Each structure stands twice: as C-alpha cells, then as structure tokens.
Amino acid sequence: MKTLVIAEHDGHTLAVETLKTINAAVQLSQPIELLLAGEKPGEIVNYAQQIAGVERVLVADNACYQHLLAENLGALCHDVIASGEYSHVMAAATTFGKNLLPRLAALLDVGMLSDVIELVSADTVIRPIYAGNALARVKSNDSIKVISVRASAFNTVEVQGAKSAEIVELNMVHNLGLAQFVSQETVESARPDLPAARVVVSGGRGLGSKENFAMVEQLADKLGAAIGASRAAVDAGYVSNDLQVGQTGKIVAPDLYIAVGISGAIQHLAGMKDSKVIVAINKDPDAAIFEVADYGLVGDLFEILPELIEQLDG
Amino acid sequence: MKILVAIKRVIDPYVKIRVKPDGSGVEDTNVKMAMNPFCEIAVEEAIRLKEAGHANEVVVVSIGDQACQEQLRNALALGADRAIQVETENTLEPLAVAKVLQAVVGQEQPQLILLGKQSIDSDNNQVPQMLAALLGLPQATFASELVMSDDTVTVTREVDGGLETLNLTIPAVISTDLRLNEPRYASLPNIMKAKRKPLDVLPLDTLNIVTSARQAVDEVMVPPARQAGIRVGSVLELVNKLKNEAKVIE
C-alpha cells in the first residue's frame, strides 16, 4: 500500500507545510507519492522531485486546477485514489488542507482524522480536541485513512538536490464549474511566515491601536521574527486576520513566542502553548498568559517594549 | 429562497474543560452548554439575509437528544422561522452528521446551507465540506463576507495568505468564520415568541441512514503540562535569561 500526499503551493513554490506533511508520511514506512495539481506547475515539479522519501510525483497540469478549488481537486484526488493502492491520504491542516480533505473523504465514503499531531501506528493517531485542552487517541477502521497533519508538530523533510522521484503526468481533467475564482488579496510581508518562523512576536488588545502595534513590528524585526496577533487585535483592525494565532487561526510552535498585551484566553493558548519558550509581557499580574509563560514580565508594555528593543540593539 | 442552518450544542467556550480520570472522555455532566460560536454566526448571517430580503425562510436543524432543543429554541428566538431536531442519543461522527444533513437537505430543498466552520469541542472542521461533497454542491469554507445575487453567491474566504473571493452557483454550502458578523442577542419577547414557533422532531431511524462509527476514541488524555515559569523583574533580566538561560536569542 502507498501514501498519497496532496501538495499545496501558490503556483511557484511548494508550501513548507507540505514538506512537513511528507515527513509525517515517512513514519508510515510505505511508498509516498505526491499529487501536484495546478496550472503549469513546472518549477514546483522540479523541486518536488528532489524531496527525500517521495517516490513519484503525480502531475495534473490543467487550468481547472489553477486556484486549487476543492470541487475540481476533490474529484481529481478521488479519481487518483480509485486507480491506485492507497491506504493513506495526507495533506497539511492549513486552510487548503482543511478545505479539501473532508470533501475528498466524503467522496471516498470514509471518515477523516483532522489536525493530527502524532501518528501512533498505521491506523491510530493523536489529535487535540477542545482547543488543545485534551488529546484524543483515535483509531480509524476505514480502509483509507484521510489525515490532515498539524505542520507545527513535525519537522521539515530534507530536499536533497538530486532528482530521484519519477514524474507521472496525469491526463485527468475535472472542471465541475461549480465555483469560480474571482480574486485574492495576499498580504505581502518581508517577515518570515508565521507557521515557519523560529521566533514569533504577538500583540493583543493591550496595544490599544494600530499605530501602537508598530512597536510589536519593530521588536519582531529586531529578532527576525514573524508577527502574530490575538483575536482581539485582529477584530480591532490592528493587523490582518491571517495573523491570528489560536484555535481557529494559525497554530504555531516556535522556539520563542513573545506575547505582548495578550491576556491568554483558552482559544489563544490553543495556538501557541507548544512553543519552546514563552515570554509574556502584560500589566495584569493575574492574566492567564502567565500560567504558561516561562518568563513573565509584569508592567506597562509602552515602557517595556521600547526598552526591550533598545536592549536588543546593544 | 430558503436557508438551512445546522447548529450544534457544545460545552460553553468559556468553560475550562476537565478530562475524566478514566480517560473515556471529557466531563460533561453539570457543565454549562451553549450553541457552538461558529453556528451562532451562521444563524446570524441567515437572519441578516432574510432581513435584507434575500430569503423568506430560515430553518435550523440540530442532531442530538432532547437537550439540543434548547439551542434550537435559542436560534428561533434570534429570528429563525422553524426548527428540526434529528433525534438520537448517540454522538455521530462528522461523516454521519453530513449524511443526516444530506437527508434533511433532500426534504427541505434549501438554496443556501450555512454551517459553522468547526465545532469547538471536536475541532474537526469537516461537516460542511463533507455535506457539500455528498450533495455534489459547491462549497465556500471560512467565509468572512457573503454577497447574494440571483443564482450565485459571492463569498470572501479567510485563507492562510489573506483573503480569497469565489463565486458559487446556488444551491451552495457555506461555512462561517469569526469575522463574518457579530451575532445578536435574543430579546426577552423574542424568547417568549420562540416557544410557539414550530419545532419538528425527526427520529434518526426514520431517515434510513447508516451512522455506525468508523473511528474509535481509545483514550482521551490530559496534554502534558508546561513547567511553571518565573517572573522577571526587569527588561535587562529578561534579555539575560533569553540569551544565557533559554538560549533562544543571540
């Protein structure tokens, strides 16, 4: 039996979360195939061939897969799986994977295992429930296991620089015409991507305004960090929603997470409590964030942040 | 146009949950329950579409025992017209939930089906996508804006890199994200009125759906606790600790 990993990309680059998913797939010790659908994904194919552990790259090159719409892609994946001996289908638990995999699972008439943090065996996984306040060990009795992988729980697979994987061109076109792509608004940033960053600096309601949030950005730049935010900061319009860390936003586990002006609601902790080192800066000594922080500093962030930025200069 | 909204009764999001000592699940007796927050947003959106003249009926459906009628009545008090309880004592897996909802959609023939993007108990984020697949309908997950026209709906989705806008033919399945709207509160007169609105009870076994479990939860565990941290007295001390003790900055 084989594992099918479904590639996520933006038309030019393979998502780092896909590399982490492949590393999770390696643990199953069976051949791994990567399904790469898109319009003219040539440069990604070259790169994908070099990924350690991937035996074959299945390429579906057609305009109908350009924006990775779940309807067309789901039908394609269903076809590929029906024609092969796959026991496992995996993708990262990003908005792409979350959108696609349940649709695919239903087409296959199997259940799904969401946001898995550990593969215990071929049919048993561990996944967080209740905003990460409990872990469930779940055994699937389905013939095909459809699994989305929490990328922050796995390392990135090696890309070795030699083209070892075989390319298989798929001539499968599924243009269902149910949904049309209209537009996208991508948030441009020179900073590291939130899920991949080694250091994350997050701001919350305590910042008070969008202008003040610039201090968080300065601190992040000083540390080469990505920026995150609590729901309160996003709702108040300080930053865009794709920077929200938490149960319903991004899940991160960086080496260092600095929470500034964030109280530490259950829903926020769900997105960052697996960080290696957590620093909390908050004026409320009773804030819940201090319960998970390795280093807590109680005080006014408007005094602390400038001083911290200055100290890091020295 | 008719809108169907699926809602779920869950442990209140502000409750700090406790794992049962025998590892069989999470303590749910004498715990405050509520409508799943994402479902509240779905109900709100349906009501707003009705108020804007895009819909003439909003039907809410929930699957569960008698207790879930509380959440259905709540949705009726918020402005839904009619409720359906698919009655079962069992907790169904997402695929089974999607199959039940598929049957309800077959009976009701709504043009729009709204659901929350995930329930905050199981955190699966599966049912809307599964339902769309079973019905062969388009899906727009994680919606933050919704614009109706005659035979399509334009949906802006919250995706990892920012926002994406799609045009879907209707009928369509849409799952709601946090920023779609701000749900309203039920007023006392509306809570009273909701008691007289129709609530149909549909026993699960009348639907002839196979809902047997595909998965077994072997154990529910408490996640490893973090070691207690320390409070530092100054920025200087913090920087020193991060450099020399935790060694996470240079």
TrEMBL record, chain A:
The alphabetical list of record keywords is:
Electron transport, FAD, Flavoprotein, Transport
Q: Record's superkingdom?
A: Bacteria
Role played:
The electron transfer flavoprotein serves as a specific electron acceptor for other dehydrogenases. It transfers the electrons to the main respiratory chain via ETF-ubiquinone oxidoreductase (ETF dehydrogenase).
The reply on keyword Transport is: yes
InterPro entries the UniProt entry points to: DHS-like_NAD/FAD-binding_dom (IPR029035), ETF_a/b_N (IPR014730), ETF_a/FixB (IPR001308), ETF_alpha_N (IPR033947), ETF_asu_C (IPR014731), ETF_asu_C_CS (IPR018206), Rossmann-like_a/b/a_fold (IPR014729)
Cofactors (names): FAD
The entry sums up its family as follows: Belongs to the ETF alpha-subunit/FixB family.
Q: Name one GO molecular function term.
A: electron transfer activity
Q: What residues bind FAD, as annotated?
A: 205, 230-231, 244-248, 261-268, 282
- Stated name of the protein: Electron transfer flavoprotein subunit alpha
SMART domains linked to this entry: ETF (SM00893)
Q: Does the keyword Cytoplasm apply?
A: no
From TrEMBL, chain B:
Enumerate the SMART domains for this protein: ETF (SM00893)
Q: Which GO terms describe its biological process?
A: carboxylic acid catabolic process
Q: Which GO terms describe its molecular function?
A: electron transfer activity
Q: Which cofactor does it need?
A: AMP
Keywords of the record: Electron transport, Transport
Is Electron transport given among the entry's keywords?
Answer: yes
Q: Give residue ranges for domain Electron transfer flavoprotein alpha/beta-subunit N-terminal.
A: 23-211
Keyword Cytoplasm in annotation: no
Q: Which Pfam families match?
A: ETF
State the family named in the UniProt similarity comment for this chain: Belongs to the ETF beta-subunit/FixA family.
The record's note on quaternary structure and interaction partners says: Heterodimer of an alpha and a beta subunit.
Q: What does this protein do?
A: The electron transfer flavoprotein serves as a specific electron acceptor for other dehydrogenases. It transfers the electrons to the main respiratory chain via ETF-ubiquinone oxidoreductase (ETF dehydrogenase).
Q: What is this protein called?
A: Electron transfer flavoprotein subunit beta
